[in-house]
Amino acid sequence: MSGLKKLLLLVLIVFNIRPANAKSAIEEAGDYLQVIVPAYAFGMAMNEKDWTGAKQFGYSFGAMQAGVLGLKTLIDEERPDKSDNRSFPSGHTASAFSGATFIHKRYGIERAIVPYLMAGFTGYSRVHADKHHWHDVAAGAAISGLFTWTFVDKESNFQVSADPGSVNLGFRTEF
Question: Which residue did the predictor score with more confidence, 157 or 64?
Fold first, then answer.
């Protein structure tokens, strides 16, 4: 690589210059955090050999994703950037808050503070990127909290059993 190309590359890196159609650093961070926070939560359960917690996380995360995708399909809200009509609710925010709320409910608020800050930043990044309105972000966080608070507890609160010819579901929760 020539000296001029190296210098240009260094300038681009130092000044974070991107093509006009590239995502901003804030939007990219939100894209990563929507995956990192729930992955961290699941990894925490696995690291602690908390198989019940890992299972509860799977149930809550799956239910949250189904709920968010269902609402995006049913509610025809245009994104602020006018790219499509799937603005409500914010899936990125719901995903990040799912991990943070799981940690809070299963392991305590002290261990969830940083994940909550990351989830909040994820919501901010969606508004900053002009992909969501603030109410989309708030709804994503609330939906995530509802599913996580329902499916996750320090004790097992969700049971599935099957007999030939029937499947039984049971759950309990405290508010």
Answer: 64
